[in-house]
Amino acid sequence: MITQIPFDKIKYVLLDMDGTLLDKYFDDYFWEHLLPEKYAEKKGMTFGMAKEELLARYKIHEGTLNWTDIDFWSREVAIDIPALKEQMRHLIEVHPHVEDFLKAMRRHNRKVFLLTNAHYKVLDIKFRKTELGKYFDAAITSFEIGYPKERLEFWEKAAKLLGFDKEQSLFIDDTKAVLKTARAFGIRYILYKAYASSRAEKGRSRQYMALDDFGDLLDGGKAWYNETGD
Ligand SMILES: [Mg+2]
Question: Which residue segments constitute the domains of the chain, with CATH numbers given?
């Protein structure tokens, strides 16, 4: 299936960060375990109660800019979230073969853009830990754009700002709601990253071609790389 991605027609590679390039385990652990634990301590409640309360509050802001705004959450729970994330940075891991894929895209002169809903402070922590920043022509956050990736406005503004042509773009993300908007906007080639977290089950999709591992793209593209040599 993956070998059907025609890299010779793709000039722009648009990539999500959390769950796609990086193991989502870090984020799941942070929001579903560590923060409830700290919140429980602060409020003098049980972990179970704290988790239930926080999950309900996350749900309200899902798919909005608030959800991605860690300063918003710092205020909401009265805990310094950037500082807490910084303490946990050793848990940030890059998915297998991501770096090889990024190197290959650079070598073959593709424009590589990171499009993330993550807050710029989180992006900064993650780039410092993983050193992936050097592979990107640009990295933009939904915070800078003013809309999350689930909104069409994000795509309109991002395309203008970065100058990518949707007909010649490949986009990879682990969130189906985001893929749906990218497709509605007209991004031609779309892949769903199926293993977002190393500790969770494989995500499944009937609507999008799934990418299990970035190594699959390297194998799929190999023949083309050798043929054209560009
Ligand atoms: Mg993601």
Answer: 2-23+93-228 (3.40.50.1000), 26-90 (no CATH)
